[in-house]
Structure formats: C-alpha cells, structure tokens
Design a protein that fits this description.
- By secondary structure, the chain is an alpha+beta fold.
- The chain is built from 15 helices and 18 strands.
- The protein has 4 domains: 87 residues, Uridine Diphospho-n-acetylenolpyruvylglucosamine Reductase, domain 2 (2-Layer Sandwich); 119 residues, Uridine Diphospho-n-acetylenolpyruvylglucosamine Reductase, domain 3, CATH 3.30.465; 112 residues, 2-Layer Sandwich (Alpha-Beta Plaits), CATH 3.30.70; 91 residues, Alpha-Beta Plaits.
- A 7-stranded antiparallel sheet has the order 15-12-14-13-17-18-16, sandwiched between helices. Strands 5-6-10-8-9 form a 5-stranded antiparallel sheet. The chain has a 4-stranded mixed sheet with strand order 1-2-4-3.
- A hairpin with a 4-residue loop joins strand 5 and strand 6.
Length: 462
C-alpha cells in the first residue's frame, strides 16, 4: 500500500509537495522535543480542498494520518511511526483578511503566530494569544491545542479568541464554521469540538480570530521575593488594585532564574540571582501616565509591606523586552528535561512544587527540578533534568508529579495538551464518564481511527 498511497497523494498535491526518504528524517523539531521523524511520506497541501482529498484517500485506504503544525510537540502530540502519513500545514500560510472595523483576522492554519501578531499590529490591532514558541508555532496548532501562554490572565485561552474555524473530518467531510461574530447562538457551536482536541477529531484548515485594541500603556516589572507566600500576597494585591490592566503574572523559582541569566545562562540579570522566587508582572491599559502612576504605587505598597527583596521597573520598550526575554528563555530549562504542565489553585502551587521536588530528589538525588509558570492563571511548569532517562525513570518521575497533584484536585495539563505522553494519567483529572464520552466522539467522527491515532484517548481496543 505504501507506494500506492504515496502516488495517490502526489496526484492530489503534486510530486514536489510529497516528501519521502531522507527528506522525512531531516524534518527538524524547533524545540528539540523529538528525535527525527518517521513516516511513509510527508504531504503538504495548499488548500482545504486538497486536505479533504487527502483525508478521503487515506480513509478509504485505512491509512493513518498525523497532522503537523509548528512541531513544538511538548507532549508527543505529533509523534509518528514509519507507517503514518504526515499532513503538514506549512504551505497553508495565507493571511486572508484583517478586518479593522470588525476587529478580526482570517487566516489559514499554517500561518505562524508571529506572522498573525505582526499582521494585527500593522492594522493597529492586537492579537491576544502569545506563547514562547511564537516564531514557529502555527495557528492551527495553537487552536488544536487550546494554547495558553503569557496573556491568559487578561484575554483568556486561545479558545476565547477563536470566533470561527474550518476543519476536515477523517472521511474528508469539510465542516466550515467560519463565524465572524462575537454573538452567534445559531445552534451548536461546533468549533469547540475541534479546539483543544489535538487533531484527533479533525484537521483545522482555516480560522477567524477576534483581535483587540492595541494598548496605549505598557508597564513591566521584575520582582524578587523571599518566599512563595509573599508571591501569592503580591498576586492578590495586584488583582485587587489593578483589576482592569493586569495582563501577566509570571513566577520563576531561583532554579529557573539561575539557568537563564549570567553567569550560568546567556542573559544579563536585572536582579541578582539567589532570591526564592522572581515575579514578572505586566499591565496593559489606555492611559500611560495614569497607568504608570498606579503601577508605581503598587510597587511602593509592596515594598512598604516588606513583600519584595528587590525589584526593577522597565523604563522603555527595550527594557520591557529584556525582562520578558528572561521568562521566555525556556530552551535551556526544558532541553533534555522531562517537562510537566499542570494547573491548581495559585495558593497551593508553592506547597505542590515543594512536595514534587522532595519526592523526585528522594528517588533520583541527581535530578534538577525547576519550577516556573503563569501563576496568575493557576499554571505551573516543572522541568526535571540532569537525569539519564529511561522508561523506568520517566515513569517514576511522572508518578510523583501526578501523584502529588491528585490531592490538590489539579489538572494534569494546563495548556500543553495530552498527546501520547499524558494519556495514561488522564483519569487523574477526568472522570470515567468524561473519558468515555471523548472516546465516543472519536469513534463517531473517525470510525477507522486513522486521524492522529492514540493521542489523548485510546480507542484501538473496545
């Protein structure tokens, strides 16, 4: 079947848009999250119609298909085998429309997040989703994964920005739900079936996003704190005193900070390493003079309450960028590490991270456990490195991370998804009835189980 299916795909998209052999193995994963690509072929359509034809062809042949976006791949959500066909959306990179009066952008799924942000900015509008992989991640991928990122505390998850989408089902049926309106209660809102479903129910091909007004004020500070209780107190005060402008509240343990700033890292530290935690706080508003005064008043109040060891307030766009570069410098932290992404009450995060670190180091004394994340929206990332990984060590670490999480009633995935990596632990956060309903949807929309099989839920055995 291999040669037959490749020839059929070449007929659909053209021979030069179907990669085989060494061209498949040479595909790079930008964040180093996967070692090489295995597949019969990589097919690169340019339109929804070509995607539909590909899916019809593969469904009739019983050929498995794994969609590829920007390949961040933090939970093995686009892992492949040598028997798969990879469906790459890279050629579907057209921004179709930026409507200034409606405040929307319409684009194909292969457009990078950075390109969408730039197109919105050129129209004096703001694309509210922002994550560290912005240069490589694609719009279809961030929607399929319901990405979170740096501005969730203000603008919500990706789901909250999507107005409409177009998707192709496993049998080639095109579901075009390209809604452009904030209010539309005309029956079921089908887009939500595909947002966050990680490509197991359909392949997203086109999207409509809601844009926002560009902020006219922007303030960023980096704060050093002596303990996590003070971090939580700062978050409570910031939410209470700046409820209309706070857009980000990020926390970094010293274990993170020391890896990314000099002398160990590459970045110049605006504050000396050694504090228990570092907080990046950001506001975005409409009046620079008024908002800066309120921001500075907050910092003065925090100092008076002895909640800060030290702090620095950015005074220019470049200084704001330099502070954000520290938080976004995740590659030295996650490279070679086993990485986790969980949600729980912000007030419980400090105790949870402490319990996880203690449990892991007890089992693996050489392990380096690093904490950081989006505390303002209940999300903490944990990276475990300095371990010679094998299946047994990975299982041991996962059991500690998720075992410690269960008493806090936390979510095993805040924003990265489930993929293959977290599937076995889905019952920590979802009930048996919820998981069975997910499986029922998968069986209904993809009865031959060809679309990104094995990810999120396993329906291979009934």
């Amino acid at each position: 079947m291999s040669n037959d299916i490749v020839a059929a795909l070449q007929d659909i998209v053209g021979e030069r848009h179907v990669l085989t052999g060494d061209a498949v193995a040479d595909i790079e994963f930008p964040w180093g999250t996967h070692s090489g690509c295995a597949a019969r072929a990589i097919v690169k359509p340019a339109t929804t119609e070509e995607v539909a034809a590909i899916m019809r062809c593969c469904n009739l042949a019983g050929q498995t298909v794994v969609p590829f976006g920007g390949l961040t791949n933090l939970v093995q959500g686009c892992a492949t085998t040598a028997d798969d066909i990879v469906l790459s959306l890279a050629r579907m990179n057209l921004i179709e429309d930026v409507d200034r009066s409606a405040g929307t952008i319409t684009a194909q799924a292969g457009v990078t997040l950075h390109a969408a942000q730039e197109a919105a900015a050129a129209a004096n509008l703001f694309f509210p989703v922002d994550i560290g992989a912005r240069a490589s991640c694609q719009l279809g991928g961030i929607v399929s994964n319901n990405a979170g990122g740096n501005k969730v505390i203000r603008y919500g998850m990706t789901r909250d920005t999507v107005l409409g989408l177009e998707a192709v089902l496993a049998d080639g049926t095109v579901i075009s739900s390209m809604n452009r309106y904030i209010k539309n209660n005309s029956g079921f809102d089908l887009k939500h079936m595909f947002i966050g479903s990680e490509g197991v129910l359909g392949v997203i091909t086109r999207l409509v996003f809601r844009l926002r007004a560009t902020a006219r004020s922007h303030n960023v500070a980096l704060l050093a704190c002596k303990n996590f209780d003070d971090v939580v107190a700062i978050l409570e005060i910031a939410n209470r005193t700046l409820p209309n402008t706070i857009s980000a509240f990020e926390v970094m343990w010293n274990s993170f900070y020391e890896l990314v700033v000099q002398p160990r890292g590459r970045l110049v530290p605006p504050l000396e390493p050694g504090a228990a935690q570092y907080v990046l706080i950001e506001t975005m508003g409409v009046d620079q003079e008024h908002d800066t005064a309120a921001f500075e008043a907050l910092l003065e109040d925090l100092m008076e309450q002895d909640l800060l060891v030290d702090g620095v307030l950015a005074k220019s766009d470049r200084e704001r960028e330099l502070i954000w570069e520290i938080r976004d410098e995740v590659e030295p932290v996650i490279g070679g590490a086993h990485n986790f992404d969980v949600s729980l009450r912000s007030a419980d995060v400090g105790e949870y991270v402490s319990q996880v670190e203690t449990a892991i180091v007890r089992l693996l004394p050489e392990a380096n456990v690093v904490g950081f994340g989006h505390l303002g929206d209940n999300n903490v990332h944990i990276s475990v490195s300095n371990v010679v990984w094998d299946d047994d060590r990975i299982r041991q670490v996962e059991e500690q991370v998720y075992g410690c999480l269960a008493p806090f009633a936390g979510a095993i995935s805040a924003e990265h998804g489930i993929g293959l990596e977290k599937r076995a632990y889905l019952p920590v956060s979802r009930s048996p009835a919820e998981i069975e309903l997910m499986k029922s949807l998968k069986r209904m929309l993809d009865p031959n189980n060809i679309l990104n099989p094995g990810k999120v839920v396993d329906v291979a055995q009934r």
